[in-house]
């Protein structure tokens, strides 16, 4: 069996290692450059590879193809594979049949990284032998090749879910759905929503789907679709006999006739959106039979996620916050919503079809100045130019941070929450966040 892998990054190399271990003839092809550390792994394992090209003769003879999530279905080589009827799978679909581990899959437009990390933290603190993977951390396939874990917590992007046929998590979470990546879904929001719900398409009555019952797109989907999985809703406003909710500043969870309560003030994560992430993660912990005392302790000592509302430093009584991971409007909405002081907002980057008007009421209420950090800031300026007194364009992170210091006074917050992808000026949102933190430290 010939396994061809498109993309020589973490998921591609991990899949190559698993494929080789399972007796496939493996070939890795990357249209860009393969990083040195990954090349070494391929060479040590005797796996054939090529970079900066896709040689059709070596690809179109595959029995099965694993495509990295960053490669769109519209790319010419993928189109040719599909025309030939060669199955093109995601890493999850390829790797899952090779493990008996319990799989917890987490998707959503926002909050999925925090929910994934918190869920992993809850299970690991309880002594479970649990792996972390998918869209973050080490490749799932690579971990399956090493046969390490009894359960996995996987962060799943819509792109990873696009490439599944039979994959099914035992416990699935949909944190929320808001317009994102529409360029990959023919600019049709319903296509993107359907992609997210693929997480539950193979679930049976033995499985569970945990979801945000306050989310409009999710509740609309349920009006015309069904899933076999047992439903566990969570909400900030509604109460359930089976599910999770907040009432009188307490998180209350009822699952399989078992109750769990905890004062929200003892939960380490702050902000309404994080209460939802905590409810989702705690619901998993309850399903996995984790003791209540362990859950409480883990929720109170969780450190949060880098580049997600991460407090960097307080300088002259101004708090600097790194929310570089906010790559869409909905994520930035949560960030601005959780600000309690006048805010200098650093925003901009590669816009994926954003509607900034959704932020208008929050900007009027909380933002004193906007610093645009992007190659093309016209849209942001058009929307907010008449709303805030001060609007400045910069082209480097150092300039953005220095300008923010000048514009801020005691008691203010400087918030990097770009609402955009980072590829115009930075390698990635991580690179953008690290540059921000370094610039703050240099003040």
* Rg over CA atoms: 22 Å
Please tell me the total number of domains.
Answer: 3
Can you count the helices? 17
Strand content of the residues, in percent?
A: 15-25%
The structural class is alpha/beta
Average pLDDT rating? 94
What's the level 1 CATH class of the largest domain?
A: Alpha Beta
Question: What fold name goes in the CATH topology slot of the largest domain?
Answer: UDP-N-acetylmuramoyl-L-alanine:D-glutamate ligase
Q: Please name the fourth-level CATH homologous superfamily of the largest domain.
A: Mur-like, catalytic domain
What's the assembly state of these chains? Answer: single chain
- Unreliable segments (pLDDT under 50, ≥5 consecutive)? none
Number of strands: 20
Assign the CATH architecture of the largest domain: 3-Layer(aba) Sandwich
Shape: globular
Q: Major β-sheet, in short? A: 9 strands, mixed
Distance from N terminus to C terminus (CA atoms, Å) equals 57 Å
